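Figure S4 source data
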Amino acid sequence: MTEPSGGSSDKPRRPVVVPVIALTALTAVGVTALLGGLGEAPDELDTLGAGAVLDQGQYDTKFVETRVTVVPPESEFQDEKRFLEMVFDVTNKGDETADVGLPAPKPEQAYLSAGFGASLLKITPAFGKDAGPFVFAQAKGGETRQLQPGVPARVIVRYQLQENQPPPEKVSFEVAGFEFSPDFNSDIPRWQMITSEVGDKFLPEVKARVTMTVKKGAAT
């Protein structure tokens, strides 16, 4: 601070004291900003692996495995295809048929769907747009896009690998949860993804982190 004109002082300047609480608050705000908002997974979440079972609210989900599947060509004019597959055993705990769903391109778009696939967030490594995802459930009659109430179903989330593209060693992703709560527009209760409002976005709250080692060499 500049001394008033015509005066001087030999007194040492007083250090500015910042309360510890204020520093802690500023640090917390900075960390929250770096993480991208309150919808991120808290650090204390354990990482689940193959064989783990998670209660997602609307779904009971077992993380079965991640594997490479080779699909033979349907004719001599076609080539075989290789897919990275994420395999789940899913039971719809609701009273109505649910959509299998798809992973959303961006986390802030995931809340628009109550389908199981939409709850899979931040899949790593990322795959190109042409690679998928292709998602379906296996049923007695073949493949289906529906999950019937109370009926366990095997759900496959599939990404196509390009020619000579090596599969990853591991696949990691985050998983959102669902709650049965009044609809924003009609107040009628329904299953919807649990989210936090961050600015003008609704970001899914992360319920679990999952990492699975990729098994290679499966064939259909």
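Figure S5 source data
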Amino acid sequence: MVIVPGVMADAQTWRPVVDAIDLPNPVITVNRRGRLPSGPLGPDYAVGVEVDDLRHLITSLRQQVHLVGWSYGGLIALEAALVQDEVLSLIAYEPVARPFGTKALAPLRKAAADNDFDQTVELVNTIVSGFATDYVAELRRSPAWPVLRSLARPLAEELAAINDYEPALSRYRQLNVPVTLLLGELNAGQAPYGTAFAAFADALPQARVVTLGGQGHLAHAQAPRQLARAITDAVVHAG
């Protein structure tokens, strides 16, 4: 199994999910560009670069894989699965695509230029995710804040890449492997994650849609065992 996290996440933040997955499969969680020990995004960074990185990783494993992607990682996983024969099944938890978080791009770029990653974490939680200021204030006091701050450096460029990229939605019907789409119950029909999810669900009528009860976009952090069960069930369902 190969897991592709989204923004402000890495292999360590997904470790509780991996530990709770009840399958014999070895699990690899990708530390994408911009996350140690991987290198920086690079001057020509784009979604296509991420897709190529993932394809190279899968090819290097020399075996078939169950592919899991969350948020931006879901978009990367879907695009890679279109052209990667080694994918056995695909699980995408609230993938995102353009237009997404466009109002946050300018202030995020300014925060990045100022090396103000506290501001970056605040902006992504308020302008992009739509969380209340009280929630963000509580988050700032929690042990999660320094972790998020450390992962915030590539965020502005990643968000720009998402908005510069046109996903191949019209080709998703051609995916001939089992696909499971995971949706947090709290995001159903709600911007930004629920509305982004709807576009992928429309493009993948063959997909099995599973709702994560009581969850939003952050089940990997807030309900890792529940998310692990959904991933386990999806792989078992895929056969």
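The chain is about 45% helix and 10% strand. Residues 101-163 form one domain.
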